[in-house]
Amino acid sequence: MSLLVVGSVALDSVETPFGQKEDVLGGSATYFSTSASFFTPARIVAVVGEDFPEAHVSFLKGRGIDLEGLTRVPGRTFRWKGRYGYELNEAKTLDTQLNVFQTFSPELPAAYRDTPYVFLGNIHPELQARVVDQVRSPKLVAADTMNFWIQGSREALLKTLQRVNLLFVNDAEARQLAGEHNVVKAARAILGMGPQRVVIKRGEYGALLFEKDHVFACPAFPLAEVFDPTGAGDTFAGGFMGALATATSDIDSTVLRRAMVMGSVMASFTVEKFSLERLREVTHPEIRARFAEFRKLTHFDDLGPLER
């Protein structure tokens, strides 16, 4: 089934201890759709400026991503510049230029309005709600958010969460949104705000999935080299949602666990190189092989008798 993402397409400048890149392809919708495109047809609603390279458009088209909703307008493309230290846990933002993204008001093409799976990228919660207004009977609506919206647009965010089936947040955002230091308590509080499921991303420590009566912990794949964690969270969400969209059964705990692992698989590839360089070259056999490695990492037999 097809999958719609509404978010940013950007040009990033990234510095890590292992090198730096200027004006490379980035943005939440870019990472998400590229990751999801390995599993299901993806559609983008986003805006770019006159300076956005045609080569990037060709790359997205080459992944089979539907770009009818990608609008090019006069002005400069959204730009972000950040630096990571050796721990690579969080970027220090050096510069943000919203440019044409500042006036982004998502309008879905008519062909997009029946898309069954919808992902609301990290945009203002009022814009996220506007997207929900435009889709007809989606099977699942997922959303991302960030500390900026949690702090500055909390009322609008809480209204949007009542219309969302699944929320992706990192552990710090979950604590801030819920007002709870403990992640488990925070997840339970967020479930009470509307979403039926919450995925809490924990970077190098993996991710946690919470439902009313179900919790699943997925590790991050152990890598010998990590070059650039930019976009890992959006790549995770793209792999997760792509796996859900290809499920042949109802979304149950088995399907969700598989989606969690697939999200971690795709994120593990992203961080191995800068920008989307690794996702440009990864193959389906590599994805299957790493998924199999995850099964080995997490498999163990039942506990035998403890009596002595």
TrEMBL record:
At the top level, the lineage of the source is Bacteria
Matching entries from Pfam families are given as:
PfkB
Answer yes or no on keyword Amino-acid biosynthesis. Answer: no
Which GO terms of the cellular component aspect does the record hold?
cytosol
Output the InterPro entries linked to this UniProt entry. Carboh/pur_kinase_PfkB_CS, PfkB_dom, Ribokinase-like
Q: What UniProt keywords are attached to this protein's entry? A: Kinase, Transferase
Carbohydrate kinase PfkB domain: residues covered:
44-275
The family database entries (SUPFAM superfamilies) matched by this protein are listed as: Ribokinase-like (SSF53613)
Give the protein's recorded name: Sugar kinase
Q: Which organism is it from?
A: Myxococcus llanfairpwllgwyngyllgogerychwyrndrobwllllantysiliogogogochensis
